[in-house]
Amino acid sequence: MKASHRLLAVLVAAIWGVNFVVIEVGLRDLPPLVLTALRFVAAAVPLVFLVPRPSARLRYVLGYGLVLGVLKFGALFTALAAGMSAGLASLVLQAQALMSVLLAAAVLGERPARAQVVGVLVGSVGIGVLAVDSGGHATVIGFALTLFAAASWAVANLVMRASGETRPLSLLVWSSLVPPLPLLGLAGVVDGPQSVLAAITGLSWRALLAVAYVAYVSTLVGFGIWNRLIARYSVARVAPFSLLVPVFGISAAWLLLDERVGATELAAAAIVLAGLTLVVRRSTVDRDTATATSESRGPGYAAAPTA
User: Fold this and answer.
1) What is the SS3 assignment for 93?
2) What is the pLDDT averaged over residues 180-186?
């Protein structure tokens, strides 16, 4: 992976880390499923009239919208509303990195390097530390929903990779048309139709700013870059960069929400960083080795892409 693309992956991690704080602020004024639905309405309109249709088949567009929008984000926003702290949620959600690598290997046949697998496992140990001792920053239902959201994100990565989409932004925008109606329907069942209507018609400036960030910055910019990287490389090489999200998430929660950062959180973040270092170092070695081999065999030789 090019150095510039690694920097883009880190930028996405920072955007998503801050996103957890923004979501928690938005939940002060909106029910979780309503906030999720508005996120995707804003992400789709008006861009759906400006960008071309995705090149992927319709089933991939629908599948990506349902898995990412309804399952992943619906569960995550509900987890935060159910007592999961922003900093801890940003860490636990990164279980998706391990799940993504395993699913890509099982379903798509992507073969990650041994060091990449070890790196993801090391990072997952950090998440496990939080599962054992969350410092009172999570409820059981909140933790379970966050793990479900992580699994859904892993499946969404798989759908994105399998779709063969050549216009990632188009897929992101058009698939954003899928989640709002199912989410609002679920919100009507959970919160009641009157609560949903009151939340939408009585939007505060704080809620609008939260929707703007999660829709335009986190979804369009963040997932736009993320999907382009996955389409260019592989799930095994891109997904582990999400292990940086909790570093930014815990820091943002500490700075903006005054969430206490204890020894457990710091130790877990250090373990996560160690895992990511293994993954990135191996990817760099693979790329340099492939380039050197190609050059040694002459200009007519093209090295096979590495995982």
Assistant:
1) coil
2) 96
